[in-house]
Amino acid sequence: AQSVAQPEDQVNVAEGNPLTVKCTYSVSGNPYLFWYVQYPNRGLQFLLKYITGDNLVKGSYGFEAEFNKSQTSFHLKKPSALVSDSALYFCAVRDFTNAGKSTFGDGTTLTVKP
Amino acid sequence: EAGVTQFPSHSVIEKGQTVTLRCDPISGHDNLYWYRRVMGKEIKFLLHFVKESKQDESGMPNNRFLAERTGGTYSTLKVQPAELEDSGVYFCASSQPGLILGGELFFGEGSRLTVL
């Protein structure tokens, strides 16, 4: 069975500071990892994904994520946070054993204060 | 290009009543998924269509839930009869054909269901 853990319900950072939103996963095979963001009263929007290749993945709005196989982690990062980055962030995973099914974490609320 | 659209955005019904949620995926997206988020918890998989066929319905909670995708276009999710625990936000998502594993999901804004 596949699973995702987002250990922090809430992350608070000051504008201009770096941010990290944590995600760890468990799958049977090779993972396909995704980050999505949800702004208030909107649907989830795709940010970035890791399929294969370079462990550092760059995505939308200046976000990046690092795939770490030994630690089974896929943390979301941004060097300098903006107030407009405040939103709900979801990590998701798929593998070959559950080809069509993405498993999501509980979500992490990011608040960036001016 | 139009995104994934869902209707209604919010539905309030009494326990025992029926509700039908509709999803129109992005044109050309063969893969259509239904997910549900209850009480601020994780987003849980309900089922996956490939065109008009149910590929995986392992997440459907019970036989009160019925999903259809007529002609491989829009999809409906009917809850009959609704129970209190069915309250939550129902998300529909679609993805491009041929990218079941590596394709990102395009989500609608969700249908919030409140059962009183």
Describe the protein's architecture and organization.
The complex is a heterodimer of chains A (114) and B (116). Chain A has strands at residues 3-5, 10-14, 19-21, 24-26, 32-38, 44-50, 56-58, 64-68, 73-78, 87-94, 103-104, 108-113. With 114 residues, chain A is mainly beta. In chain A, strand 10 and strand 11 form a beta hairpin. The mean pLDDT of chain A is 93. By secondary structure, chain B is mostly beta strands. In chain B, 0% of the residues lie in helices and 48% in strands. Chain B has strands at 5-7, 10-13, 19-24, 31-37, 43-50, 53-56, 65-68, 75-79, 88-95, 106-107, 111-115. In chain B, strands 2, 4, 5, 6, 9, 10 and 11 form a seven-stranded mixed beta sheet that branches. The mean pLDDT of chain B is 92. The interface between A and B is medium-sized, with 27 and 29 residues.
Largest sheet of chain A: 6 strands, mixed
- Find the biggest chain interface: A-B, 27 and 29 residues
- End-to-end separation of chain B: 37 Å
List the total number of helices of chain A: 0
Mean pLDDT of chain A: 93
Structural class of chain B: mainly beta
Can you write the helix and strand succession of chain B as a string?
EEEEEEEEEEE
Name the quaternary structure.
Answer: heterodimer
Radius of gyration of chain A from the CA trace?
Answer: 14 Å
Could you tell me the strand content of chain A as a percent range? over 45%
| Low-pLDDT runs of chain B | none
Could you tell me the number of beta strands of chain A?
A: 12
Q: Give the fraction of residues assigned to helices of chain A.
A: under 10%
Helix content of chain B: under 10%
The radius of gyration of chain B is: 13 Å
Uncertain residue segments of chain A: none
Task: Tell the overall outline of chain A.
Answer: globular
Structural class of chain A: mainly beta
